[in-house]
Amino acid sequence: MRLRPLRLVPLALLALLVAPTLALAQDGSSVEERIESLVVATDSIWVVVAAVLVLFMQAGFGMLEVGLSRMKNAGAVMAKIFINLGIAMLMFWSIGFAIAFGGSGSFMGTAGWFLSQDDVFPAYSGGIPIEADFLFQSVFVAVSLAIVFGAMLDRVKTAGYVIFGIVYAGLIYPIVAHWTWGGGWLGQDGFLDFAGSSIVHLQGALAALAGALILGPRIGKFRNGRAVPIPGHSMPLALLGALILLVGWQGFNGGSTLAAVGVNFADVIVNTNLAAGAGALGAAVGSLIMFRTLDVSQIGNGLIAALVAITAPCAFVDPWAAVLIGTVAGISVPPLVVAIERLRLDDPIGAVPVHGISGIWGTVAVGLFAVGDRLDAAGLGGTTGLLYGGGAHQLWVQVYGVLATIAFTGTASLLLFGAIRYTIGLRVSEAQELRGLDISEHGMFGYPERFIDVPGAEPEDLPAFSPSAPVGASVAGDQGEEASS
Length: 485
Hints:
With 485 residues, this protein is mostly helical. The protein has a single domain, classed as Orthogonal Bundle (Ammonium transporter fold). 66% of the residues lie in helices and 1% in strands. The chain has 18 helices and 2 strands. The protein has helices at residues 8-26, 31-68, 74-101, 130-150, 158-180, 185-188, 197-215, 235-254, 265-291, 296-311, 319-342, 351-369, 372-378, 393-421, 430-435, 437-442, 448-451, 476-484, and strands at residues 222-223, 226-227. It has a two-stranded antiparallel ribbon. A hairpin with a 2-residue loop joins strand 1 (222-223) and strand 2 (226-227). Helix 2 (31-68) runs parallel beside helix 4 and helix 7 runs parallel beside helix 14 (393-421). The longest helix is centred in the N-terminal third of the chain and has 38 residues, at 31-68. The chain starts with 7 loop residues before the first helix and ends with a helix.
């Protein structure tokens, strides 16, 4: 009897499974070698997928910063997101990756420029391909650089930002990354930062703080000694950005295992999301206490602050500690935002409290909540946290690691921004700022129909609006007249 076509499906599947095994057997590979190849392939796929998730965070920063900027600057924000990504990729490929991970110096790496020598990256020897590691680390640089721009919205020159980005991605960020992740002096001392609360986020916030100090506040932000709200033009876009960042953070923290086989990256991701949920709720509570209302922007920033805080300890702490870390980060956001404004610092997206203070808190939290079994599983050294009976040693290491980062990145960023200001200039003119960066820097509006007459953009020949008109009547006529007046 003839076989029906569907009966051939199991045979075809079996052939697909057996064929690779037969091919490997024919090339003389041992079972151990074949298993090792499969492990490397699986680990490589996970790291590349995680890198793509982190890359998607650029869309999150774009939407967050567009939403919190003025409408007349929306296009300029997206332009700088693309410029930011290009700078991060090219500078980290040419010199940054070598400084961060090449060689074994205590202060910085000195070999492997342009990924030219695979054998000079001891931090990754014997693992996945160096190209996968580079891709993952380069998108981290792009995240850190995006934080910097967030505090400088609506008033920074593109040329000045580009110069800072080149030095930051090529030199400043990689040096601090080398101290821990590249086998430098902080790593040798036992400093722990699993995915970058300090290395990525605190560094970005420090540079953002330096830039905001050198730039000064936006026109009209402070009047008669008081901060005046300058609301972003689209809160839905800003909150969409926060949600995209949450999605990207699954790869940010989970992918930092740099492996899928033999490690429980799902545990890291669970801690990440527990903290994020607690941070959003904590910020809601903090907003009610501070403002007697549920401030939507504060809730979004609370979620991001919790993600920043859990980034350093996500692999080292139990779930209850992740919830506590996220709650503290989230509930702290509203009062910190107010405190920053009282210092007359104009930080439109809250980069300093969200990425800076929360980055410090998360890094220090390792010294409080790190669990011995989890530290052993991670294989990164370190000692048990203070609250688990490990004493104050790890806490002290975390504190002076944070202080070293503040001293180096903060000082370097201030000097660099100061030099840019007094040479080519860092801030656009008052006229350009009032006109908007979209048209003054890029020659086109992000929302052209809002600012210029676009034929066909508005409906024509509709009845004018009247207060006595029935519900549902068109209002386009009067709105158009009011806008033109």
